[in-house]
Amino acid sequence: MDFAPTKDHELLRETVRSWAEKEARPTAAARDEAMEWPADLVRQMGELGLMGVAVPEEYGGAGLDYIAYAIVIEELSRVDASLGVIASVNNSLVCYGLQQFGTEQQKRELLTPLASGRALGAFSLSEPGAGSDAAAQRTTAVRDGDHYIINGVKNWVTNGDHADTILLMAMTDPAKGHRGITAFLVDTHAPGCSVVKVEHKLGIRSAHSCQMAYDNYRLPAWRRLGEEGQGFKIAMTILNAGRIGIAAQAVGIAQGAYEAALAYAKVREQFSQPIIEFQAVGFTLADMATRIKAARLLTYEAAWRKDQQLDYIAAASMAKLFASETAMWVATKAVQIHGSNGYSKEYPVERFFRDAKITEIYEGTSEIQRLVIARELAK
Fold first, then answer.
1. What's the longest Cα–Cα distance across the chain?
2. Contact at 8 Å (CB) between 206 and 80?
3. Sign of the dihedral defined by the CA atoms of residues 157, 159, 161, 164, in that order
4. Residue 116: which residues within 8 A CB-CB, separation 6 or more?
5. Cα–Cα dist 285/291, whole Å
6. Once rounded to an integer, what is the mean pLDDT over residues 25-43?
7. 3-class SS shares of the chain: helix, strand, coil, % to 5
8. How far, in Å, CA of 18 to CA of 45, rounded?
9. Crossing angle, helix 25-34 and helix 81-88, to 10 degrees?
């Protein structure tokens, strides 16, 4: 097994890192504080080919592999996790879903602009009463000739207020339970789709997550993704792949927090010596570096297995579980190494600390990841 980055992968890493340092880092803290959507940076990410990394070139993407995709999300998140999740949603949850289940018309008309960065996508599964219990959908879609009439409320729609296309799950046959869920490709510019509110979040505040409402929204039947009743299967397939992106995001957050703590420990002096020379601090940094490397290798293995068309469900959940908990642990220790300065917005570690928490929650909580892994082990 060899999932080590190639020279092309390392060149990609250098390119994304250089761009993120120059363009994103100077404004990351201010955008986070103001909950400012990074419109210009999202446009630049599209121009760099970062919004459709693993999509074939014929559909507007960069035509790279999933290890490349993991590298992109890690490097964005190392500087600004908000950019990481904006790109991850568009790549993993929307482009991948269209690539796997879309018709040729849907790929040409919807996937191509999304993958090329000329449009933006969002994914909509969660509802006020449907979180980890994703099958408990209440949003309905009723067939009406060549259209579906959609009604309901969706929560936590990342990119929702700026998206052009939303991959939406809705009930077409409530009597069938999860087998009655169908996937749709919503045009947000059509009447009947509205943003109720933008959530005020603990972290990744520059990436907007919205509550959205559908009021007799008329969707042309050609925008149904897959067949009726396939929505739950489509959603789970998408999330299995998406967890690689969230694992990479968590690795990036951890790496950013570690680098900040390492730099601080070298210059901060107490008792007439840099605090890195104290064994307690040095050992903590050693543990941080070790856990990050382990998380990165788990993430690369999951990406490699996907590229090799091997079963990657357990590998992706393991990567997401370990990387997210590593990000939270590393960010917590980074704040501790900074002492009281770690509690100040003058230093970046408090932002990494806030950003890390969500990686243990979205696209399947840590508890759900353990459930997925246990089920895979039992097969």
1. 78
2. yes
3. negative
4. 46, 51, 52, 60, 61
5. 10
6. 98
7. 60, 15, 25
8. 13
9. 80
Cα gap 298→292, rounded to integer Å: 10
> pLDDT tens across 160-205, in order?
999 999 999 999 999 999 999 999 999 999 999 999 999 999 999 9
d(CA 316, CA 179): 24
Question: Each residue of 307-317: pLDDT tens digit?
Answer: 999 999 999 99
The Cα–Cα gap between 123 and 271 comes to 52
Clarify whether 363 is annotated catalytic. yes
Residue 270 pLDDT exceeds 70: yes
**Token representation of residue 72:** 């992109």
Cβ pair 51, 114 in contact under 8 A: yes
pLDDT of residue 1: 62
In whole angstroms, give the CA distance from residue 209 to residue 82: 11
Looking up tokens 């599964």 gives 125
Catalytic residue (choose from 23, 75, 350, 363): 363
Helix axes 231-267, 81-88, angle to 10 degrees: 160
- The residue whose two tokens read 């895979």 is 376
Q: What Rg do the C-alpha atoms of the chain give, in angstroms? A: 21
Element (H, E) at 184: strand 181-187
| 8 Å CB contact between 170 and 139 | yes
Alpha-carbon distance 65 to 46, whole Å? 17
Q: Is 190 helix (H, G, I), strand (E, B) or coil?
A: coil
197-231 per-position pLDDT tens digit: 999 999 999 999 999 999 999 999 999 999 999 99
Can you give the pLDDT at residue 132? 76
Q: How many angstroms from the chain centroid is the CA of residue 133?
A: 20
Task: Find, among 162, 178, 156, 184, the residue nearest to 236 by Cα.
Answer: 178
Token pair 């009281």: residue:
340
